[in-house]
Design brief:
The complex is a heterodimer. Chain A is an all-alpha fold. Chain A has 4 helices and no strands. Classes of the chains: A mainly alpha, B mainly alpha.
Amino acid sequence: MSADDSDRKIPIRPEEDEPVFRTPWEARVFSIAVQLSRRGLFSWEDFRQRLIAEIARPDANEDYYQNWLRALEGLLDDKGTLIAEEIDRELAELRANPPAPQHHSHEPDKPLLVFPPAPGSGERR
Amino acid sequence: MATSHHDHEHHRHDEPESDVALRVKALESLLTSKGLLDAQALDMLVDTYEKRVGPRNGAKVVARAWTDPGFKKRLLEDATAAVNELGFPPGPEGINLIVLENTPKVHNMVVCTLCSCYPWSTLGLPPVWYKSTAYRSRAVSDPRGVMREFGAELADDVEIRVWDSSAEVRYLVLPERPAGTAGMSEEELAEIVTRDSMIGVATVNPPKRAARRRRAGNGRAEHRA
């Protein structure tokens, strides 16, 4: 019998009519992992073990697809498919030259990306 | 294109939404330039899981099992093969599906204690709560309390079996067919089967309209040959 009553206090909070993906990036990162696995870059079990490790990290957050993204990046880095520095470099590039909206955007009423103002912008010293 | 923002309210995480979105973009663009990704196939995958695969598939399986004893027998013996008969797209790999039958004395509930394993081909992708720490811990410590939150109260003499999904096995619960549904067609039955009942956190309720019709018709809708 579990002596830990604290578990019992966390509500489950099911949501009505929850979307499959909350944002376009969730859909993207989900399908990237599935496609790479189907193409044989890694086994689904390899990925699953990574995901389990990300979820179990003491500093993990509850955002499922952020854990998914970290699992995927870690796995690709380990396999040498895509090293972390490459992603950082590409990210810097994208920040400098934001991509044009893609024609395959899944939600026509929503922007592909939203760039909020940097903290403290507009009052630059 | 209009500049409406995503709804940020439900996000509790540490990285701003736009940073993560951009990071995924970077990943996709690098993998594509290395020839490892096919953007069109990605779109198709998203479309499959957003529109073509979902709990309606599982509901069809359950309704078929309720109305076709031969199918039910095959389903309980080899669910992977039986579900293939219905032609749903496969999950990530050759993972075995096992169907767990609820009875008046045994109720089954499914969880993935470590991550989020789930029967994609019959239920689609899991809801957020299924992946939450709250559910993953409470399903194994307080299953009756979990069910109460989903509006289902089990009698004290019902045994609850909690199943942990794994790399090799995914589970689908075959809920009990509710009383008062004898006159319903397979299609009508599929409509009353909920996702939550196939995870085992709820039971299937008889439809209100059918219940009313039955009362009005003095039980004539029931076919008891």
